[in-house]
Amino acid sequence: MTGNTRDIEAGVHRDFREEMSYGSYLALDTLLDAQRPVSQHHDEMLFIVQHQTSELWLKLVLHETRSAMALLAEDEMRMALKRIARVKHIQRTLTDQWSVLATLTPTEYQEFRPFLGHASGFQSWQYRAVEFALGNKHAGMLPVHASDPEAHAVLSELLEAPSLYDEFLRYLSRRGYPIPQRVLERDVTTAHELDPELTAVLTDIYRDAEQHWDVYEACEELVDLEDNFQLWRFRHLKTVQRTIGMKTGTGGSSGVGFLQRALDLTFFPELFAVRTEIGA
Ligand code: HEM
Ligand SMILES: N[C@@H](CC(=O)c1ccccc1NC=O)C(=O)O
């Protein structure tokens, strides 16, 4: 037998002149009109779609992370963890997605790279917002967004707000854990720095996990989050390496060297320091 033999059932809705349809609900006119190559090269479409899908997922990561922060501030730990679980799945998708871009050869990329000018992922405000929310605060990043007042406003707000980790530590303090006062009152516009006394508090949780099961589990969720973030950074670095080698970046950085240094960053240093202490 040939052809598609599946009946289109009588009940199937067909007239959307006066009703909301799939496309109108999702604003597909706008979404699918947003791929605007600046060169004539075939592979630029891949480059654009890869970035746009990443930005869409980043939008959801930000939405979920900000919600998790607000929930923690209200002592709603279980709901906050639900948000974080979703973020972890998105992170995996973002990391897996690098394999699509890895099909772009250096020869193909060079065809349209000169058309990109000084545009660079370095200017992604949503990426920077996620970094800020997770605690990698850096006021020096704000001027890059001066030409986009809305993005600048979101970044300023996140810079000045407690990070996810700050909210977690405040929550632990409210639960009676002896979080040092200087940690609770730190200048949240800067990145958190390792505090050995905080490591000791968290180590006690890990040493007696059964007694502290829910917060112990929450700590491991944060470790997963950071681990996933680092995997994305690493895949970005390796993709950059195979695509432009040691060339400087269009954003003006050294390129691979700059991205390599990001792998030394940590959002939750004490949660990793705990590993050294366990069993010691
Ligand atoms: C062939 C593909 C890519 C190349 C060659 C590349 C290259 C680079 C380079 C060299 C930098 C350093 C800044 C600069 O001087 O430009 C950078 C930063 C960045 N790129 Fe890409 N990139 C690629 C794809 C992507 C994709 C798909 C995303 C997804 C959104 C992305 C997001 C970012 C972000 C967020 C930064 C800033 C990182 C930070 O500040 O730590 N890049 N990229
Ligand atoms: N920084 C890249 C260019 C680049 O990847 C890019 C250019 C425009 C929009 C997004 C980009 N993605 C990530 O940096 C390069 O140096 O080739």
TrEMBL record:
Q: In which pathway does it act?
A: Amino-acid degradation; L-tryptophan degradation via kynurenine pathway; L-kynurenine from L-tryptophan: step 1/2
| Reactions catalysed | L-tryptophan + O2 = N-formyl-L-kynurenine
The family database entries (InterPro entries) matched by this protein are listed as: Trp/Indoleamine_2_3_dOase-like, Trp_2-3-dOase_bac, Trp_2_3_dOase
What cofactor does its activity depend on? heme
Keywords for this protein: Dioxygenase, Heme, Iron, Metal-binding, Oxidoreductase, Tryptophan catabolism
Example GO biological process: L-tryptophan catabolic process to acetyl-CoA
Q: Which residues bind substrate?
A: 47-51, 109, 113, 250
The first-level EC class reads oxidoreductase
According to its UniProt record, the EC number is 1.13.11.11
Record function comment:
Heme-dependent dioxygenase that catalyzes the oxidative cleavage of the L-tryptophan (L-Trp) pyrrole ring and converts L-tryptophan to N-formyl-L-kynurenine. Catalyzes the oxidative cleavage of the indole moiety.
Quaternary organization? Homotetramer.
- Family membership: Belongs to the tryptophan 2,3-dioxygenase family.
Enumerate the PANTHER family for this protein. Answer: TRYPTOPHAN 2,3-DIOXYGENASE
This chain belongs to which protein, by name? Tryptophan 2,3-dioxygenase
Name of encoding gene: kynA
